[in-house]
Each structure stands twice: as structure tokens, then as C-alpha cells.
Amino acid sequence: KLFFTDYGNAAKVERCDMDGMNRTWIVDSKIEQPTALALDLINKYVYWVDIYLDSVEVVDYQGRKRHTVIKGRQIRHLCGLAVFESYLYTVNSDTLSVLRINRYNGTDVQSLALLDNAKEIHVYQKRTQTAVRSHACEVDPYGMPGGCSHICLLSSNYKARTCRCRTGFILGSDGRTCK
User: Where are the LDL-receptor class B repeats (predicted)?
Assistant: First the structure.
């Protein structure tokens, strides 16, 4: 799945398949300017920062079990969000500090470091890089990912795929070759 935020005409948090199909709103109320987004891949939770409401909130992948992790002036100007173990990590663009927030109680907020110009934060950890034995976009004997001449996108699950073409090309009737 692909998760993303939008604060155009109607602010929301959405999800879709990797090929863009099955687009679903998972949060569309009591939300103003959702920006940074982070996933708890193990427990299947979506966290986001709302910079207008000065809040960090969470829902499950279906948009249920919503609650506010933390809200208020102490978390103004947040950008970037990452989840690791019991904490959320974010950057305060006003003070240029990296913050650590306990994602279970929201009261334990600590400044960890000062940075010159950070706008994003990521945590790289082996447990978040799940191994897949095989998937629909593996390279075929002819060197084509998933049998697609240009781009292979996983679809509703790791066994299904959709072929797409680079700009200026159109997908042929075989659903794999770009012309």
C-alpha cells in the first residue's frame, strides 16, 4: 500500500495500491493541514502531523482507532516524521531541533539534537525492511521487471502487478509493452 496526505480542497489522509488503484480516504474529518506521515508497519498504524492544528494523530490502516498522540504549542512547526520502537521522531523547523516523542503517552518530549537545515527525518532499521521471497515485479529472463518493458508496479498484493510506461509512451494492447 501507498499512504499519503492531501490538504487541497478537503484535507485527508489516504491509501491506495502501489499502482494507484483502490484509492481510499482513511481520515477526512477534524483534519486541516496533514503534512508529515509515518507508518508503524508491524502494528499497521498511520501517524501524521497536522501543522495547522499543532497535533500528531494516529489511526489504523482502515481509519479506525483514531486518537491524538500530542497536541499544543510545544510541537509547533513540525516537519518530517518517523516511527521507531516506542517513539516518534520529528524535526522542529523553527528551532531546528530533532524531537523524540513517546508515541504511547505523548508527554515525554525530548530535544535530541540541533541541525542546521533539516526538513525530513527517516529511521533505517533492518526490521522495517521486510524480505519477500518472490513478487510480481521480479525481473524475468529477458531482464524486464514483471515482464513490463518500462515500469512494474505492485498492485493489490505482492503477486499482482500493473505495467506502466515512461512519459511519452503508451501501453500496448498486451498490457506489458510500451510504444
Answer: 1-43, 44-87
The mean pLDDT of 54-60, rounded to a whole number, is 96
Domain count within the chain: 2
Q: Kindly tell me the sign of the dihedral angle through the C-alpha atoms of 80, 54, 83, 132.
A: negative
Q: Given this model, what pLDDT does residue 129 score?
A: 66
67 and 142 part of one domain: no
Q: 108: domain range?
A: 2-127
Residues 95 and 167 in one domain: no
Q: List the grid coordinates of 68.
A: 491524538
Q: Where residue 31 falls among pLDDT bands split at 50, 70, 90? A: very high
Closest CA to 80 of 119, 26, 109: 119
Please give the Cα distance from 125 to 134 (Å, whole number).
Answer: 21
CATH number at residue 8: 2.120.10.30
Query: Closest Cα partner for 24 from 46, 41, 40?
Result: 46
Q: Helix, strand, coil proportions of the chain in percent (round to 5)? A: 5, 40, 55
